[in-house]
Every structure is written in C-alpha cells, then in structure tokens.
Amino acid sequence: MELSLNPTEWYMKLLAPLSPDIKLDLISKLSESLKEKVSHSEKTILKSEDFFSALSGAWEDDTSVEEEMKIIRDSRTSNRTRKMEKF
pLDDT at position 32, please? Predict the structure, then answer.
C-alpha cells in the first residue's frame, strides 16, 4: 500500500466516481483557468512596468546621496535608548 500519493493520483482517485459529464465540465473549467492564468500574468507584468515607470523621477530633492545616508544613520536609535540595570 502506497503511503503518499502525488497530487495527480490523489485527484484521479477523488474524481473516479464522477460521471463523464461532470468530468468533461471539470476539464473545461480547468482549461479556462489556465487560459486566464496566462493572460493574467501578462497583465501583471504590464501593470508592474507601468507602476515603476510612473514612479521614476517622483522623488525630487536637492539632498545628495551622502547627505541622505547621514540623515538615515543619525536617525537610528538602536542601543541608544536602552538602559541596562546592574546586577
């Protein structure tokens, strides 16, 4: 007796008792879902490209990269506010 089934075998055992009409309907729906998946992934790629190109140049500031880095580093508070108690 096999202890684990791969997903395909598991679904085949689950779907075996169904009528041929129901199986054909499932095949049709699976095919449609695959077509939608392909077109959805293409749309997602286009949307992400538009999103990033829309953000290009959105940050307008005269501060140099070095100044921004200094501001970020100076604003860090880790280990500065911690108070250690003596034992």
Answer: 87
